[in-house]
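User: Can you predict the 3D structure of Acyl-coenzyme A thioesterase THEM4? Sequence below.
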Amino acid sequence: MSRVPPPWPPVEVETAHRHPDAPPPGTKFGPHYAHCFGCGDEVEHGLHLQTEAGEGTAIHAQFTVTEAHQGAPGLAHGGLLACAFDEALGVTVGQQLRRPAVTGRLETDFLAPVPVGSTLHIVGTLDGIAGRKVYASAEGRLDAPDGPLALRARALFVIVDFRHFVEHGRAEDLRAVAENPSLLRQSRFDINP
Ligand SMILES: CCCCCCCCCCCC(=O)SCCNC(=O)CCNC(=O)[C@H](O)C(C)(C)COP(=O)(O)OP(=O)(O)OC[C@H]1O[C@@H](n2cnc3c(N)ncnc32)[C@H](O)[C@@H]1OP(=O)(O)O
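Assistant: Sure. Here are the predicted structure tokens for Acyl-coenzyme A thioesterase THEM4:
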């Protein structure tokens, strides 16, 4: 079977520019929500993905695969690896564009097994925008920023209004955030920049 992926982005796009208020390269973001499985600091067996701003529209992310992340014995579960890319790409879109967006589509190529104990180094970048559609992609390397290539991912994010989260989120979790806003670890950004 051919491993040549279809053209990307799949539609005509405009260049995605880093928002003028996006944090400078090297800025560490920390978790965006305490209970986020991808980055939350209150999720015991979560991925605890660490992210920081890179050059241009890039984001650098990493997480270490633990015993709690296994699929086959001693190997990371593919769904959790895809989760790491969803999170890393979500941060790429959210932080570099400063717009709220949700994943519409995520495709992942698993190129090499990822053992427990390894650290995955992910770089995500914006590939273009077409209306509300934002295209982004990422690569993940094993144990070093220039380590062996283990995964590639491509995603479509769709820009949404903040109402999306209020209308669809479970009431008790929204109430918990209203009562304790520090659960949202990062302040909201302007949705009409
Ligand atoms: C502080 C910062 C930290 C930020 C840190 C953030 C980190 C978060 C990390 C995790 C991110 C997530 O997991 S987010 C959670 C997982 N994702 C979700 O729950 C999304 C569930 N899906 C939805 O709610 C909806 O389907 C939407 C919002 C994606 C789209 O619905 P809509 O608003 O009605 O818009 P709709 O017209 O359908 O779609 C808009 C355009 O996108 C296209 N489109 C939509 N979905 C697809 C698709 N799967 N494949 C192809 N194309 C698609 C449509 O054809 C259309 O194109 P055209 O007609 O305009 O050409």
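The radius of gyration is 17 Å. The chain is about 20% helix and 25% strand.
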